[in-house]
């Protein structure tokens, strides 16, 4: 079963004052969430329902409850239409989608790494990618399902086989790494977390996550702080899994991060300039890996420009050296799975 946000400051607070939606509702996008009834999917869908950039929120999951989730969200007083689809209704859910977000998959449990999720989630993601290639071949695809380092290459290879691959329309959502980094750094250094900026590059698991703390403006860190923050950012998911004592993984924070990236992409698709988000895309920024997360300028066609990582400290260079072989192996695993299945 599939079990599995616009910038935080742009989420509207509750108000009794009526709002006008006439222009945004007519110009909005259809966004499909695959795995919408799960632990990430439901809060993600809730946050996306509050986006004026979305005219149709299409929810899909194999779970029987999915149409009910759709009805529940449809009662919220925002302009988007909501439809819920289950089981064999995937084609209907995808038809006409501009953006497809994939939180589908099984969650991590204590002691599990993202790599442990591979066998189950790889098959789920490949099947969904095949459906997208048939029913929404021009959609921008946002992959949340772990392990992202491998599932994004699986989607890419599946699209290549179908003749629908566009490297500028495929994204691995690594926003949670940035969200955590901003939170942890702001707590430590008493910064305004809504204004904090921390560049996190690499991949989306363990040592492949590289927070570039040397680039944080206006603050300095001791080496002890750097090492402690780096480890916490890299293994923040483990912190949540352990705290939930086997009952779940990082669902709420991931939903927040997923909605933030989705809304930022929608803003760029609408023509807003200067939209830059860290994301895992096909990239030649770092030799030895064909996909890499770094700051990416988004535009009307998806990826507009991939920006360099910037100057790295000696410590960060060592982190990168350690990350590249692991990331390359993750990518290879995804490619080989897609080509063998």
Structure notes:
The protein is α/β, with parallel strands linked by helices. The protein folds into 2 domains: 8-174, NAD(P)-binding Rossmann-like Domain (Rossmann fold); 175-338, Lactate dehydrogenase/glycoside hydrolase, family 4, C-terminal (L-2-Hydroxyisocaproate Dehydrogenase, Chain A, domain 2, Alpha-Beta Complex), CATH 3.90.110. 41% of the residues lie in helices and 17% in strands. It contains 11 helices and 11 strands. The protein has helices spanning 22-26, 41-49, 66-74, 90-94, 118-135, 148-162, 175-189, 223-234, 236-243, 252-269, 314-340, and strands spanning 29-34, 54-61, 81-86, 99-102, 140-143, 170-172, 200-202, 209-211, 275-282, 291-299, 302-306. The chain has a 6-stranded parallel β-sheet, sandwiched between helices. Strands 9-10-11 form a 3-stranded antiparallel β-sheet. Strand 7 (200-202) and strand 8 (209-211) form a beta hairpin. Helix 7 runs antiparallel to helix 8 (223-234).
Describe this protein with a few key phrases:
341 residues, alpha/beta, Rossmann fold, L-2-Hydroxyisocaproate Dehydrogenase, Chain A, domain 2, 2 domains, 6-stranded parallel sheet, 3-stranded antiparallel sheet, 11 strands, 41% helix, 17% strand, disordered N terminus
Secondary structure: elements and pairs:
Blueprint lengths: L21 H5 L2 E6 L6 H9 L4 E8 L4 H9 L6 E6 L3 H5 L4 E4 L15 H18 L4 E4 L4 H15 L7 E3 L2 H15 L10 E3 L6 E3 L11 H12 L1 H8 L8 H18 L5 E8 L8 E9 L2 E5 L7 H27 L1
Parallel strand pairs: 1-2, 1-4, 2-3, 4-5, 5-6
Antiparallel strand pairs: 7-8, 9-10, 10-11
Helix pairs in contact: 2-10, 5-6, 6-11, 7-8
